[in-house]
Amino acid sequence: MKILIIVCICFATYLWFPLPRYKSLEQPDGNETYEKKVESTQKEARPASSSEILSALEIIQLCVSSGMTISDALDYSQKHSPPAAAKELERGLNQFRIGYSLMHGLEDLATANPRWQSISDTLITSLNTGSPITDQLADVAFILQSSIDTEKLKRIKSVAVKSVMPLGLCFLPAFILLAVVPIIAGLIRSFN
């Protein structure tokens, strides 16, 4: 019985505090260096998150409301936005700079990262019609902020479920072995 209790405590401790993993002390060969370069390139090429796009949108909105043209507002936002959003804006603006229409660059921006779709559609509509865009950008910013808040709420709710896992994996088996099994064993001995 004592051995079973010790094994359960050791298992619960292992689950609660896993052992660290050590890398080998061997020298990296050429392939590992290449793999590290590929991993760092992939990290840099990640799509912009919703919060980064929202900060870029706020800059665009301020620029347009101050009287800048859409292309100037995108250029200013590209220079002052978070890195991932700035890189995506630069890709769209580069097409405009080499001679394509700004609408083509905005469509490419939305194709590369779907989170830009509503912003791109709003800007393209304004370019086509010449209508004021400040109110539409405010609406897009509100919707984007709402989606960010919804994502945060989902993550908060998932934490409550995940926090119950240690109880189920560690404490309940230990409770059963330390409390329930001795009671049942005592009852069985009393009936014999």
Structural notes for this entry:
This protein is mainly alpha-helical and 192 residues long. The radius of gyration is 28 Å and the shape is rod-shaped. 79% of the residues lie in helices and 0% in strands. Mean pLDDT is 82; it is low at 24-29. It has helices at residues 2-16, 30-44, 50-65, 70-80, 83-97, 102-112, 117-129, 134-162, 165-191. The chain starts with a helix and ends with a helix.
The tally of beta strands, per DSSP, is: 0
Distance between the termini: 19 Å
Helical content band = over 70%
Structural class: mainly alpha
Text of the CATH class of the domain at 50-159: Mainly Alpha
Structural Rg: 28 Å
What is the helix tally?
A: 9
**Mean pLDDT reading:** 82
CATH architectural name of the domain at 50-159: Up-down Bundle
CATH topology of the domain at 50-159: Receptor-associated Protein
Global geometry: rod-shaped
Largest sheet: none
What string gives the helices and strands in order?
Answer: HHHHHHHHH
Strand content: under 5%
Low-confidence stretches: 24-29
Write the topology of this structure:
Blueprint: H1 2-16, H2 30-44, H3 50-65, H4 70-80, H5 83-97, H6 102-112, H7 117-129, H8 134-162, H9 165-191
Helix pairs in contact: 1-9, 3-4, 3-8, 4-5, 5-6, 6-7
